[in-house]
Amino acid sequence: MLAAGTTLGPYKILAPLGAGGMGEVYRAHDSRLGRDVAIKVLAQHLATTPEVRARFEREARTISQLNHPHICALYDVGHQDGIDFLVMELLEGETLAHRLEKGALPVAEVLTLGAQIADALDRAHRAGVVHRDLKPGNVMLTKSGAKLMDFGLARTASVAAAPGALTESPTVSRPLTKEGTIVGTFQYMAPEQLEGKEADARSDIWALSCVLYEMASGRRAFEGASQASLIGAIMNAAPRPLSEMAPMSPPELDRLVRQCLARDPDDRWQSARDLGRELAATGLETGTRRASERGAAVRRGAFAGARVPWALSVALLALLIAGGVWHARTRATGHARHVVSTILPPRGYAFSIGSGPMALSPDGDQIAFVGEDSLGATSLWVRSLDSAEPRMVPGTSGGQMPFWSPDGRDLGYFANGQLRRIGVSGGSAQVLAQTGLPNGGVWSRDGFILFAGGQGMGIQRVPAAGGECTSVLDSARTVTAKAPSWPVLLPDGQHYLFAAFVSQLVEGAQDGVYAAALDGRTPPRLLLPGVTAVQYAPPGRLFFWREGALWEQPFDAGSMKLSGAVVQVVNEVMFDSWFGGAFFSVSPSGDVVYLRGSASAGLAELAWVDRAGHDLGRLAPPANYYSPRISHDGRKVAVDRSDPVSGEGDIWIFDVARKLGDRITSNPLNESVPAWAPDDSHLYWMSAVGAQGMGDIHARRLDGTGVEETLLHGDRRRFPMDVSPDGRTLLVQSRRAGVLTQGSLELLSLPDRKLSPWPSTSGGEYYGRISPDGQWIAVVSRETGQDEIFVERFPRGGEKWRVSTAGGIGVAWRADGRELFYYSPDHQVMSVSFRAQPVPEIGVPAPLFHTQLRTYGSAAFFDVTAGGQRFLLVRPVRADAGAALTLEQGWNPPR
User: Fold this and answer.
1) Where along the chain do its domains lie?
2) Is residue 133 annotated as part of the catalytic site, yes or no?
3) pTM of the prediction?
């Protein structure tokens, strides 16, 4: 046992949590990230076997890529002083095994937890990982649902066993049976495992059906007084039907369990995904049927007198939880009733967590949201509450951040750098304004739209019918690192609220929600410190997100003052650190819809893909990544990794083979945009300093002999783009602090630190990469009115040759200089052949694959290996396909 206070790398042991056949588990504190984690130490008798240790580390790498809300996350793997250990997510709750000691679970909970476990298994199976030890002791019940633990690591202990040998799982199971009954995990092993055959996904499906049986009935599917009798029961007997063991369970569940317990794997459900969908559908059908039956009983007079209202309440609540709709009837009678319902995403889609929150219509009868397909393509959808299925709004490809017109007939939204409006039934979208990286809009009853257009634009006002934009709030004097965001109009139509980050409204101002007047005669006033998302509901209530939860507080819009108690609406609501918004929406009547979740959304992954876009694995767990650069030898990746709350970044270097990263900057400044020296001996980056966000350029040798050096102080924000092949010139992007869309390129002579402008045209260049032979430069320029890729001669500039034909941002060269890559407005990674001649020969752009990349201004965050065969993408993490919205109608605070 490790003593409290023992350190393993940056992890300090706090207390033991448990022990098993593979080793011990401890609570520990991560001193780097300031969080508590769980550390699992590999047992000494296993650690001495080289094969076990190799497999332990190999499988840990695989499991670390299983990012899923119902899988216990694996953060790190390490070795110190002869101790091999895993660093995992620390889960608060109880195991399913412990819960089952109290008896069977309610049917609704069985179906919900079963669907969550199936979804987790599906994610693992698609990554080539088989659990092989699924049982109640490896399922943790938390506030956010089921969490599957010890994923795949049971394999590590089996390598020492002889082929075909029958061994119990290496983890210790909590006994649920009387003395004399076999304790362990034989009860959940499929027949093929007992025969010594290789387990596959269908073996996990067998185990899941055993767990479902136990949750529904409170009894194990297979039991025996000895090991032999237990094995005989699994191989030859059938468990008693659930209809006998749990009479209240639906017949559909009995059917699913029996099919999954087929002894021939070919006769079972073949994928956990299909099984999970069946479980979810069973939950909906069961709830709807029971609600209908209860409603019929009420109509027949089965309940009389004082019991009738109670029966109606139960029936309506069951109907809504099952996905039905009750809305207009209560509004017509004026009778307030608090009802909670679940809204599922369209088939084949997920709720996009990188495209802004959903929006309730003014009458509360429709929900607009952004759906994301399996390729990352987004579009707007509308779900009417009197309809069972949502419908796509045609013509909204790439849409994000929807908001409603006052009459509920149109939607405002953002797409491809534009503010647009479109009818709810679809049609041609009308372009209202050009934007940067937008952060929300609101449609006034007075016929104008207020929107946050991104850095450099502040808060803008534009007629809803189209016309000239006017500035309402000047970004240059209000913010530096992030723009004012998420405007909310108040009832008088003359005042509004907005969120500000790193605000410079007045000296010493704070992040938070501010109140302001449209005429700008009075300076904005801080209303809610530390709050980043807010909405107003008449006659006087503010709903806002803070520290992971959704809150409500009375608010007088006339005096602009808050009063009364702050009440929590729900304790876990997703927050997107990329666009700074929370996933909730409120209607004028006070109905509220939200996406539950305890983690910050908007994270991205460093993903490898081939030229066809096929996944080749992930380099690192999800985080806030920007500007990845692969070293010239292909062995390292430098990337900016930022804090999801403060936005401050550090430079990390990841080892490609080992998939392990090291942070090379650790001061409180914001370091970003790394660039490698031609021989990979140095790394250059930008470090933001000063109240106005100016950025110096820093450098460091990477052999451990050098210290961090400041190459350039400046009065602007400067980013190192690329280094010439001779190592003498650093290409720099320069722009005014706080401005996203205006900038230029400069050349910094590294021997003498002299800075000179790049000979740009009236269109300006915002992003550039130097060709491998040092004779050309590819740049992003807006001289045509939109971002396009051009090539020019390096280093003298001059004539330009256009590469892209329909817009493009971000650019990278193949190592031989014969091919260019960029990112198109329709989310394609494009390839263009290039042949250097006196006049360059440039091919026709061809799409390689469709993907959703994190972008920023003229940068699209990707890089390519020397041979042009593998791409490293900063790809927004897609939402769990099973994640559902929660709608609360008639919610009122308990005052």
Assistant:
1) 7-89, 94-270, 343-601, 759-869
2) yes
3) 0.53
